[in-house]
Amino acid sequence: xxxxxxxxxxxxxxxxxxxxxxxxxxxxLLFANPPSVFKKPPDRPLDTVNIPIDPPPPPEPxxxxxxxxxxxxxxxxxRPIPDLTILPVDVAPFGPxxxxxxxxxxxxxxxxxxxxxxxxxxxxxxxxxxxxxxxxPRYAGQFQPPYPSAEQRMGEAGxxxxxxxxxxxxxxxxxxxxxxTSDGFCRATRDRALAKWRFKPAMRDGVAEEAWRTMSVTFxxxx
Length: 223
Hints:
The protein is of the alpha+beta class. Helices cover about 20% and strands about 15% of the residues.
């Protein structure tokens, strides 16, 4: 490579001149504006002020000690009750003293406060359940008695009211005519009741018993 022919040559004298000029400028600036110097103020004594503080509250009283359960405080003795019967009427504290009431009259079976016997009254028994005799449907076709021949020849109709006693087996024990159009109708109905009528017996609290029942029978001729 070829060096620049026109390059400037370095002279040491020029460098010295440049450095001197800079030093002169810096000194001029320092003297033109001298630096401010701060002085430390002298130490002053610290003034303190006491702030009043409220006194502390008094300590809370301790709770009373629990007494053991075994220790029981003695109860005060009961005050004596004055006997008003021995006081005069005018000084009685609660008014006049009346004489005791007369004794009650004796009751049946003994005397109040005595040693006699007292008759007890039994509680009422519950009402019993009773059902009368009922017609047995198995024998319902046998209740109509045969038509009496005399009344049938005369063409008479009739009606009988028969009272029967039904036993515990459902059979008729007794038969009585209450009303009847004729004796023929009454005999025919009574004979039929004793021979063929069957009932369900009367029941009282689930137990069969004899009972009466009234039956009506009608006699009508068919054309």
